[in-house]
Specification:
Layout: H1 18-25, H2 33-48, E1 54-60, E2 63-68, H3 73-81, H4 87-98, E3 106-111, H5 117-129, E4 133-138, H6 142-154, E5 160-163, E6 166-167, E7 172-177, E8 187-188, E9 196-201, H7 203-209, E10 217-220, H8 226-236, E11 245-249, H9 259-266, E12 270-274, E13 278-282
Parallel strand pairs: 3-4, 3-10, 4-5, 6-9, 10-11
Antiparallel strand pairs: 1-2, 7-8, 7-9, 11-13, 12-13
């Protein structure tokens, strides 16, 4: 039997069998994070044991994705763990959405969108809350963006603007460094690295291109390039454009006061929540 081509096969070509799909969903009904995560790990190993590399699934209610299980850690985790995957971070975004007036669009920026899982989660939450939403997904890597756009298309996500470049401190060019083991770790090259040439744009210019006059929540995961991007943004963008909430990875920093999170603190943000790998920073009410 000829294996479907993941680049051209329609959604459903990599669907699980009815039994495998029931097994995949078992952990979602389990109480308690610890028990659920243990069950997710067992289910994930069982469903991947036969060499499965790709699966077409409903990743969040009403949102669909073709997940690649061998070369992208977040896609692998969400395959059998969509309820536990970054659940504290996604809860913070969900609560920020719920706090907004129901008639006012929720503006979400996914900087370093990867395959689009955070964006799809926000779309699912917006549908559950009957809340209008506008998402901006920024992803420079060609393969990650292909997966992102495929997932948005099969989810019929027409409220998402995809920007195909990397964020930088200024307009210009950079290089994209690939990872052999985890597509979530592709990154803009440092001075000592080489890679494929990509376009760089400042965050303020990207928001203008997408037509955003404000940002409710921005998740920024651009693999160590956050500090120069945010430094330029805070120096040049009007305060009214500063995100009300920023979700940043902090696991590589010795303290929350260092790196990009520390830069946010210097500009008036406060730490609303510290997770194992990420932090939620917010502007106090009236600061924008």
């Amino acid at each position: 039997m000829t294996r479907p081509d993941p680049l051209t096969a329609p959604f459903g070509a990599f669907a699980l069998s009815p039994l495998a799909e029931r097994v995949r969903r078992l952990p979602m009904a389990m109480p308690g994070d610890a028990l659920r995560r243990s069950a997710e790990s067992v289910v994930r190993r069982a469903l991947m044991s036969g060499g499965r590399e790709i699966a077409d699934i409903e990743v969040f209610p009403g949102q669909f994705a073709r997940v690649h299980l061998r070369d992208n850690r977040c896609e692998k985790r969400v395959f059998a763990g969509s309820k536990s995957w970054d659940n504290a971070e996604r809860r913070a975004i969900r609560e920020a959405m719920a706090a907004k007036p129901a008639e006012e669009a929720f503006i979400f920026v996914d900087a370093g969108a990867n395959a689009g899982l955070y964006t799809l989660s926000v779309l699912a939450d917006a549908a559950a809350q009957s809340h209008p939403v506008k998402a901006i997904a920024i992803e420079p890597d060609i393969e990650n963006r292909r997966r992102l756009e495929f997932n948005l298309a099969v989810s019929e996500a027409d409220s998402v603007t995809v920007l195909p470049y990397a964020l930088g401190a200024e307009e210009g060019e950079g290089a994209m460094v690939q990872s052999d083991t985890n597509r979530g770790e592709v990154h803009v090259a440092t001075a000592s690295e080489t890679g494929d040439t990509i376009r760089l744009r400042p965050l303020e210019a990207a928001l203008a291109e997408a037509g955003a006059e404000r940002v409710d929540v921005m998740k920024m995961d651009i693999e160590g390039f956050e500090t120069p991007v945010l430094k330029a943004f805070f120096a040049e963008a009007p305060r009214s454009l500063w995100p009300t909430m920023i979700l940043l990875e902090t696991r590589h920093e010795a303290a929350i006061t260092e790196g990009a999170a520390g830069l946010c603190l210097e500009h008036g943000y406060t730490v609303a929540q510290q997770m194992r790998q990420n932090a939620v920073l917010v502007l106090p009410t009236g600061e924008q």
